[in-house]
Design brief:
By secondary structure, the chain is mostly helical. Helix content is 50%, strand content 3%. It contains 6 helices and 2 strands. The protein has a two-stranded antiparallel sheet with strand order 1-2. Helix 4 crosses helix 6. 11% of the residues are buried.
């Protein structure tokens, strides 16, 4: 299970809408208690905007986990049809489409350079969202 979870995290590392994480409940008992985790391993997931997680009860293989995430959790922003994009992503798409010359490539290169750095998860998520948009625009 541990290896499948680590591989799942690697698989969705650049996703703009999915964050895979884990918590050692022997070290963070109050956090686990707050979210109703009493047995290990427990997999919970949250959809955007929800404060209450749901318990995952599907298969534990990497293929099962990947399929669940791709089918149920991952939201992909498509620059050609922005209905799956957040307002922030739409605004960024419009801003970058208005740029001239090689601005998209320069911005993508800049963001790629930042990716290796340490940052809060929400900032890393926004970075990967922008990279995904720029990859589509180039």
């Amino acid at each position: 299970m541990k290896q499948a979870w680590e591989d799942l995290g690697s698989e969705f590392e650049t996703s703009s809408s999915v964050v895979i994480g884990d918590c050692d409940c022997t070290q963070h008992q109050s956090l686990c208690s707050k979210h109703g985790v009493s047995g290990y391993p427990t997999i919970k997931y949250w959809n955007a905007g929800e404060s209450e997680g749901k318990k995952y009860s599907g298969g534990r293989s990497l293929d099962d986990l990947k399929k669940f995430v791709a089918d149920n959790l991952e939201v992909k922003c498509d620059v050609k049809d922005t209905k799956g994009c957040s307002e922030k992503e739409v605004k960024y798409i419009e801003t970058m489409k208005a740029k001239e010359g090689d601005a998209v490539k320069k911005e993508l290169d800049r963001l790629k350079g930042m990716k290796a750095g340490s940052m809060k998860p929400e900032l890393k998520q926004w970075l990967t969202q922008r990279m995904s948009i720029l990859e589509q625009l180039k």
